[in-house]
């Protein structure tokens, strides 16, 4: 079994619980309330801030120009398509400016951002790749569901930024890149596995927080 398949197996049952989450089901069938979607997007915009910083570290720490350019291309996509989705959805949901720029963070958002920034500050390319891979692969998994898309742009758009052919190829490439660049030593691999499992736990908790009282 490849290294990334071992990582994903180690992240069960949380991985499947996140992919099959009530949030995903309600997003696809359009039943997700505006209050819950806004609550999620406000927190996720702060996650995205730390995520973009981590992508910048991938550009900085990649060992060769070929890999660096792939991460750089992804940074560009993030800065355009994904950011446009957020600003359009915030406008449609009438989210106040303060909640877009400096909201009160949920505990899980603080924990997730701390993990992203720790990986960034490690300047370890395998650690950076591992955290990027969880976030992108897990989102590709739920967004690739063979279900009709909801009509409202606020719902549909969040699925569409994660199910394009470009996004699918980016996740394939991240998997191959980590398989190629993972260290050989058992202890270093075990550390990456702990990181992958912890990031998956936070992905599940991030969806759960949308439904917390
Ligand atoms: C919490 C979270 N995980 C992954 C993604 C995908 O980048 C996202 N937008 N938010």
UniProtKB/TrEMBL annotation:
It comes from the Bacteria. It comes from Microlunatus panaciterrae. Keywords: Hydrolase, Thiamine biosynthesis. Catalyzes an amino-pyrimidine hydrolysis reaction at the C5' of the pyrimidine moiety of thiamine compounds, a reaction that is part of a thiamine salvage pathway. Thus, catalyzes the conversion of 4-amino-5-aminomethyl-2-methylpyrimidine to 4-amino-5-hydroxymethyl-2-methylpyrimidine (HMP). Residues 9-211 form the Thiaminase-2/PQQC domain. PANTHER family: BIFUNCTIONAL TH2 PROTEIN, SI:CH1073-67J19.1-RELATED. It is an enzyme of class 3 (hydrolase). Pfam families: TENA_THI-4 (PF03070). This is Aminopyrimidine aminohydrolase. Its EC number is 3.5.99.2. Belongs to the TenA family.
């Amino acid at each position: 079994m490849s290294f990334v398949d071992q990582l994903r197996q180690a992240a069960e049952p949380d991985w499947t619980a996140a992919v099959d989450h009530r949030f995903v089901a309600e997003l696809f069938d359009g039943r997700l309330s505006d209050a819950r979607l806004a609550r999620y997007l406000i927190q996720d915009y702060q996650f995205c801030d730390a995520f973009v910083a981590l992508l910048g570290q991938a550009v900085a720490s990649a060992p060769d120009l070929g890999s660096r350019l792939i991460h750089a291309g992804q940074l560009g996509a993030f800065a355009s398509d994904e950011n446009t989705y957020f600003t359009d959805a915030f406008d449609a949901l009438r989210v106040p400016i303060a909640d877009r720029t400096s909201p009160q963070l949920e505990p899980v958002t603080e924990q997730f951002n701390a993990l992203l920034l720790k990986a960034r500050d490690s300047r370890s390319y395998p650690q950076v790749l591992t955290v990027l891979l969880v976030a992108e692969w897990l989102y590709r998994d739920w967004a690739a569901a063979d279900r009709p898309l909801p009509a409202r742009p606020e719902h549909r758009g969040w699925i569409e930024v994660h199910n394009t052919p470009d996004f699918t190829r980016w996740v394939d490439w991240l998997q191959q890149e980590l398989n190629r660049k993972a260290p050989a030593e058992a202890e270093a691999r075990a550390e990456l596995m702990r990181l992958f499992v912890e990031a998956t736990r936070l992905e599940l908790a991030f969806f759960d927080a949308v439904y917390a009282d």
